[in-house]
Design goal:
Radius of gyration: 17 Å
Number of helices: 7
CATH topology of the largest domain: Glutaredoxin
Strand order of the largest sheet: 2-1-5-4-3-6-7
Distance between the termini: 44 Å
CATH class of the largest domain: Alpha Beta
CATH architecture of the largest domain: 3-Layer(aba) Sandwich
Structural class: alpha/beta
Length: 192
């Protein structure tokens, strides 16, 4: 089924009063499988990407190079949008409570390194941010939004052993419960 057909299904569903969250949902309603998300306990999909922080320096990052550390990969739709600002600001403000020492936090979106560096500098983020303009990393984690250019908000914790320790393919950035579950999963992953 083509992207045009999926968009038509979404438009018909909206007209009929059915809300479709993303084109991945439209794909499911059209009988196509949504992108697969890695299961808890499975090996986390490896990736190589480029990140940046408030300095604007390009930082090569790969999951394989982080083996032995707890890694949080947080996919989000767009720099500086309201939900994304709420999520990453909470990550910053509650960094020690949520993550603590020894955890690598990698927020990831389609935005450019320049956009990430500017936002990280303005918001004083204590973590590097991955630029994934081709959706290569997001696709491996089922976070690519199908035909839409933005990622679904999702969070994964990768344990020191390289396995998925926690998966939230529909992370709610505005609900405290999601952050509580994330913090608990990180605490467990750090202990293992």
């Amino acid at each position: 089924m083509s992207a045009r057909h999926i968009a038509q299904i979404a438009a018909v569903a909206l007209t009929a009063g059915t809300f479709i969250v993303s084109s991945a949902d439209a794909q499911q309603q059209a009988g196509q499988a949504a992108p697969a998300t890695p299961a808890v306990g499975a090996a986390a999909p490896d990736f190589s990407a480029t990140a940046t922080d408030s300095t604007g320096k390009a930082i090569p990052v790969s999951l394989a190079s982080l083996r032995g550390k707890v890694v949080v990969i947080a996919f989000y739709p767009l720099d500086r949008s309201s939900g994304c600002t709420a999520e990453l600001t909470k990550f910053r403000d509650e960094y020690q409570t949520l993550f603590g020492d020894g955890v690598v936090v990698l927020p990831t979106s389609v935005d450019s390194l320049g956009s990430h560096a500017s936002w990280a500098k303005d918001a004083h983020f204590p973590f590097a941010m991955i630029a994934d303009p081709t959706s290569a990393v997001a696709t491996k984690y089922g976070a690519q939004g199908g035909a839409r250019p933005y990622f679904r908000r999702s969070v994964y914790v990768v344990g020191k052993d390289g396995k998925v320790a926690y998966a939230s393919p529909r992370f709610d950035a505005l609900a405290q419960d999601g952050y509580d579950k994330l913090a608990a999963a990180i605490k467990t992953a750090k202990a293992n």
